[in-house]
Write a structure and sequence with these properties.
- The complex is a heterodimer of chains A (112) and B (110).
- In chain A, the strands form 2 sheets. In chain A, strands 2, 4, 5, 9, 10 and 11 form a 6-stranded mixed sheet that branches. Chain A has a 5-stranded antiparallel sheet with strand order 1-3-8-7-6, with no helix packed on it.
- Chain A is mainly β and 112 residues long.
- Chain A is globular.
- In chain A, strand 9 and strand 10 form a beta hairpin.
- With 110 residues, chain B is mostly beta strands.
- Helices cover 0% and strands 52% of the residues of chain B.
- In chain B, the strands form 2 sheets. In chain B, strands 2, 4, 5, 6, 9, 10 and 11 form a 7-stranded mixed sheet that branches.
- The radius of gyration of chain B is 13 Å and the shape is globular.
- Classes of the chains: A mainly beta (112), B mainly beta (110).
- At the A-B interface, strand 5 of A face strand 4, strand 5 and strand 10 of B.
């Protein structure tokens, strides 16, 4: 059975801290791994990763994929209160019309 | 350009009642999806439609039906609602790089 496991389930940090969120997966017919940020409503897209070892960056956020060890990390540097959200990791499988298999998410709270 | 829209935003049903959740996208995407999100379980795929005129079951299709009315619209129907269907429902459509999600429908079945 396909599964995606995220850790930690939740964490609380202070503004300015750096955080690392983890995502491991077991998915057949892997196509890509995606990170989403969910603040109250719909998940919003952050990154899509398809190749091992290539870091993707967007401002203070960065992510990398290891297809050999089947995991990805999402780093957030110099955290701000606006980074408080649930971060979802999803793996796209080439079945079910390219379905996304989601992890349960990591709840991040940044205190001022 | 509204992206993916869903109606209603919130609904309360009694056990056994039926209802249809509406979803529309204006991005000319072929593929559309319905997910449900429950606490601690991430999002799970209910049904998807790879193109206009086709629909297929996802991981948790029991108790639901769908209709791909045209390229824009993909509806989800609960014929006889059960308390286990209390959840937040998200519709999504797919571009090349990712799926774009609607704002969600929060459904409570009493």
């Amino acid at each position: 059975e396909d599964k995606v496991v995220q850790s930690p389930l939740s964490l609380v940090v202070h503004e300015g801290d750096t955080v690392t969120l983890n995502c491991s997966y077991e998915v057949t017919n892997f196509r890509s791994l995606l990170w989403y940020k969910q603040e109250k409503k719909a998940p919003t897209f952050l990154f899509m990763l398809t190749s091992s070892g290539i870091e993707k960056k967007s401002g203070r956020l960065s992510s990398i994929l290891d297809k050999k060890e089947l995991f990805s990390i999402l780093n957030i540097t110099a955290t701000q209160t606006g980074d408080s959200a649930v971060y979802l990791c999803a793996v796209e499988a080439v079945e079910y019309g390219n379905k996304l298999v989601f992890g349960a998410g990591t709840i991040l709270r940044v205190k001022s | 350009n509204a992206g993916v829209t869903q109606t209603p935003k919130f609904q309360v049903l009694k056990t056994g009642q039926s209802m249809t959740l509406q979803c529309a996208q204006d991005m000319n995407h072929n593929s559309m999806y319905w997910y449900r999100q429950d606490p601690g379980m991430g999002l799970r795929l209910i049904y998807y439609s790879a193109s206009e005129g086709t629909t297929d079951k996802g991981e948790v299709p029991n108790g639901y039906n769908v209709s791909r009315l045209n390229k824009r619209e993909f509806s989800l129907r609960l014929e006889s609602a059960a308390p286990s269907q209390t959840s937040v429902y998200f519709c999504a459509s797919r571009a090349w790089e990712t799926q774009y999600f609607g704002p969600g429908t929060r459904l409570l079945v009493l």
